[in-house]
Amino acid sequence: MMSFISYLLNGLSLGSVYAIIALGYTMVYGIAKMLNFAHGDILMVGGYAAFIALNSLGLPVPVAVLVSMVVCTLLGISIEKIAYKPLRKANSLSVLITAIGVSYLLQNLAQLIFTANPKSFTSFVGIEPIKLAGGQLTVSGETVVTIVTCVIIVVCLVTFINKTKAGQAMLAVSEDKGAATLMGVDVNGTISLTFAIGSALAAIGGILLCSAYPTLTPTTGAMPGIKAFVAAVLGGIGSIPGAFIGGIILGVLENLAKAYISSKLSDAIVFSVLIIVLLVKPTGILGKKIMEKV
Amino acid sequence: MAAMLKVDSLGISFGGLKAVDNFNVEIEKNELYGLIGPNGAGKTTVFNLLTGVYQPTSGQIVLGDDNITGLDCEAISKKGIARTFQNIRLFSQLSVLDNVKVGLHNRHEYSTLDGIFRTPKFRKIEREMDEKALSLLKVFDLDGFCNYKASNLPYGQQRKLEIARALATDPKLLLLDEPAAGMNPNETEELMNTIRLVRDKFDMTILLIEHDMKLVSGICDRLTVLNFGQVLKQGQTQDVLHDPEVVKAYLGD
Amino acid sequence: MDKVIAEKKKITRSNLITFAMVIIAYVIVEIMINTGNVSSLFKGLLVPLCIYSILAVSLNLVVGISGELSLGHAGFMCIGAFASSTWSMIMKSTSMPEGLRFFIAIVIGAVTAAFFGFLIGIPVLRLKGDYLAIVTLAFGEIIKNLVNALYFGIDANGLHFSLEDSMHLNMDGGTIIIKGAQGITGTPKNSNFTIGVILLLIVLFIVLNLINSRTGRAVMAIRDNRIAAESVGLNATKFKLLAFTISAAIAGVGGVLYAHNLSSLQALPKNFGYNQSIMILVFVVMGGIGNIRGSVVAAVVLTVLPELLRGLSDYRMLIYAVVLILMMLCTSAPSWIQYRERIMMSFGKNKKVNGKESN
User: Which end of chain B is more exposed for a tag (fewer CB within 10 A), N or C?
Assistant: First the structure.
């Protein structure tokens, strides 16, 4: 029983990381209608930025987190401005390929600068492990911080989108760019803001991921990026609560599958669940159904 | 005279809303029948029910001697109903000729393997299809554009191509959804002649939705007026158009 | 009718050019090999060039002709590779002639991949757009994952499978053929450049003829407007499934070539993972969506390009990424296209007028 709870908590922690990354995916998809394949690599850049700030520059943890977020935000905005914005009216495949190009670019730049050798990442969490149930259950500080951070982020985001003018502008742009422009919404600004928030979240996701799994390589972001993408689709892409739910389900499932079924087949199991969910609900758990008018 | 289409108390509801309710109509062979009514009255929904895009929640549809209620689009097309769409739906990347040849798909058959290995059967049937398609395009003066990409045709020609494609399926009943939408009076005049020509040349039964009253009163033999999903009036064109209730439905109080 | 015949001739000529290009390239390379002008590095690239060309054509059938985005084609390649390799391993010790054995291997690879394509296509093709893309990606990863965990052996009692380890096979002597993550070792090296080119030509023949037939027209009509296609009596699911299955079979053939080109076959992320699927998609998009000849050209150019940049060692993938982004911007971004046209105009005005005439 204790081991089950332990696996569950680890799953929640991993799921929280997926959820944080998936939020970025889902927001960008909602507003730009594009699969930002480079999102996972922004996470990796965030990891390296935090690594340098903490280990090489010796900055305190909160400042290092901030530095990483700022770096990713600027990176996200510039990528959007340079690579995606000119293609806003082009077909979706061209944008997808460009995003893949950006992903390759970031990975190979990181490899040039930091080499392919893994860096051992010092955890950003200073909290001692918590012992529960008379010492039978140990919960690491990283687990607690990750889960709490994720919940805070989701609550903040939902509030931001529903209660602020900028958030409402995001909803308007994701619904109909043309109409939003006519209503006086600054579409370019809103899209930039979305990329900024998504990238800052990726930075946090990167730091939390590397704190829990402390090796950092230029491809660190690739698989979590794909998993987060799966989480976003599972929850219903474009939906913020959906990304959260999708992330948590994916993380828990992955850890439980590893523990109880087969560690080798955990990916296959996770992906199978995605397929089954989509076959039952073709637009994800919280996705909206769109019907074509004849 | 036997009815070509007999629709009996047809209805559909979307989440409790009755979009079409108790719709009845009988169309005779070779008749040109009009379906009119204010926006949102459910006219296109009737077309979608007749062609199997939606499945009716009640009622039945009989085409000639076949009960086609509940069949899907593919089966209904094979039974002999063809249609055009309010917002033109062509195969935009295909050539004008190929658009019509897709319409001929179920009338001229050879297998995929014949196609890959270019068998004599493939050659023979492709030639037949080319000839048939060209003769259909000629009716609409489109044969000169046969190698154009469909999306490069001017608007009026696109409407005609849609009719040609529908006719290629060799239907018993042709449904036209607002064929004159977006046309100027001259083009509408030309379209009226085309529709008459289609009826006479192909011995076709036609049901059309239209807002252009000049076209409706010019070519329709009989009319049904639909309002809020229900039949408001049915009968000879001139009688229906001058009915006070119909005028009220269109103009309001 | 004259216009129709002229158009048909145009298509036939275009197809012949595609075949001629492949054959001429083959002849030139063969001459260069025989005169000793080819580095061993380039020789090693010849079979992969054929494999990637075949895969690009296969994926273009789904993406360009059928209009669905698939990110799992490496999975079908993986199935073709492992199925055919297993066959060749089993038959290696028999007296079956090598040519016949490899021919059957190709058929087995194609049929197995087609079978899985059909099976996966039934549920997947109900989805649309990006959802279809992610589900095909998921299937590709599942296939890779399962193959990685698969143990397979054969003994006097028959076939043994396990997803655990070799012990669970409960073998009574015999040989273990697939050893989990280690894959298959010792596949006979039957692939060579000539066979690769022949298979590529066959694939081109099938795909090009398919596109210009009743079936291909139906598939493209459904791509352009599904509702209209159904209204003229086409079964959209059937034709989408057909295109997907044929495409999977062709990807399987690519896998057969791949497996029989290397002595050890493993299901790694880099050969059968989503990255490989994306790589193939890049070929398709770069070559022009729906343009079969373009797929072959793009596959060749983009496979050779990183090798040509090998002198730049660390920078080559970086340059590749930049080329990819710039190419997309140049060909698809409206502002870039305008800019490009303005430059073209200043060079020669009459060139553009000719370009617009066709069609």
Answer: C
- Indicate whether C183 belongs to any domain: yes
Residue A8 lies in a domain: no
CA distance B38 to A84: 44
Angle at A191 between CA A223 and CA C322, to 5 degrees: 55
Token pair for A72: 């990713």
For every one of its 294 residues, what pLDDT tens digit does chain A have, with 9 covering 90 and above?
Answer: 778 888 999 999 999 999 999 999 999 988 888 888 899 999 999 999 999 999 889 899 999 999 999 999 999 999 999 999 999 888 888 888 899 899 999 999 999 999 888 988 888 877 788 887 777 788 888 899 999 999 999 999 999 999 999 999 998 998 888 899 999 899 999 999 999 999 999 999 999 999 988 889 999 998 899 899 899 989 988 889 999 999 999 999 999 999 988 888 888 998 999 899 988 888 888 887 666 666
CA–CA dist A161, A18 (Å, integer): 21
- Strand order through the sheet with C175-179: C158-162, C151-155, C175-179
| Domains in chain A, number | 1
In degrees, rounded to 5, the angle at the alpha carbon of residue B86 between the alpha carbons of residues B81 and B89 is 75
Q: Reduce the DSSP state of residue C16 to 3 states and report it.
A: helix
Listed in sequence order, the residues at least 6 apart from B9 whose beta carbon sits closer than 8 Å to its beta carbon are B22, B23, B24, B58, B59, B60
CB-neighbour burial class of residue C69 (10 A; exposed 0-12, middle 13-18, buried 19+)? buried
Residue A41 structural domain:
13-231
| Stretch(es) of chain B classified as CATH 3.40.50.300 | 1-80+171-253
Residue B181 exposed, middle or buried by CB count within 10 Å (0-12, 13-18, 19+): middle
CATH of the domain at C260: 1.10.3470
Sequence length of chain A is: 294
Touching subunits of B (3+ CB pairs, under 8 Å) are A, C
Q: Does residue A109 form part of some domain?
A: yes
Q: What is the ipTM of this complex?
A: 0.93
Size of interface A-B (CB pairs under 8 A): 4
Please tell me whether residue C203 adopts helix, strand or coil conformation: helix
Q: Which two tokens stand for residue A96?
A: 């997808």
Residue at A70 is within a domain = yes
- Packing angle between helix B120-139 and helix B185-202, nearest 10 degrees? 130
What span, in angstroms and rounded, lies between the C-alpha atoms of A276 and C168? 29
B1-80+171-253 has which CATH code? 3.40.50.300
- C→B contacts (Cβ < 8 Å), by residue, are 1, 3-4, 6-7, 205-206, 209-210, 212-218, 220-221, 223-225, 227-235, 242, 290, 359
Q: List b or e across B188-216, with b for residues whose CB sees 16 or more CB atoms inside 10 angstroms.
A: beebbebbeebbeebebbbbbbbebeebb
Per-residue pLDDT tens digits for C207-259: 999 999 999 999 999 999 999 999 999 999 999 999 999 999 999 999 999 99
Q: For chain A, how far is it from start to end, CA to CA, in angstroms? A: 55
Residues in contact with A217: Cβ distance below 8 Å, sequence separation at least 6, in sequence order: A116, A117, A118, A119
Domains in chain C: how many in total? 1
Whether residue C353 lies inside any domain: the answer is no
User: Which is it for the CA torsion C43, C47, C50, C55, positive or negative?
Assistant: negative
Find residues 76-135 of chain B whose CB sits inside 8 Å of chain A: 85
Which residues in chain C touch residue A229, judged by CB atoms under 8 angstroms apart? 134
Alpha carbon distance A116, C322 (integer Å): 20
Could you tell me if residue C23 is inside a domain?
A: yes
Ordered alpha helix ranges (H), chain C? 2-34, 40-60, 73-91, 98-124, 129-149, 193-211, 214-224, 226-231, 236-259, 269-272, 274-287, 292-308, 316-332, 334-347, 350-357
Question: Domain range holding C251?
Answer: 2-347
Classify residue C269: in a domain, yes or no.
yes
- C-alpha pair distances (Å), C254 with each of C23, C74, C175, C242: 19, 10, 27, 19
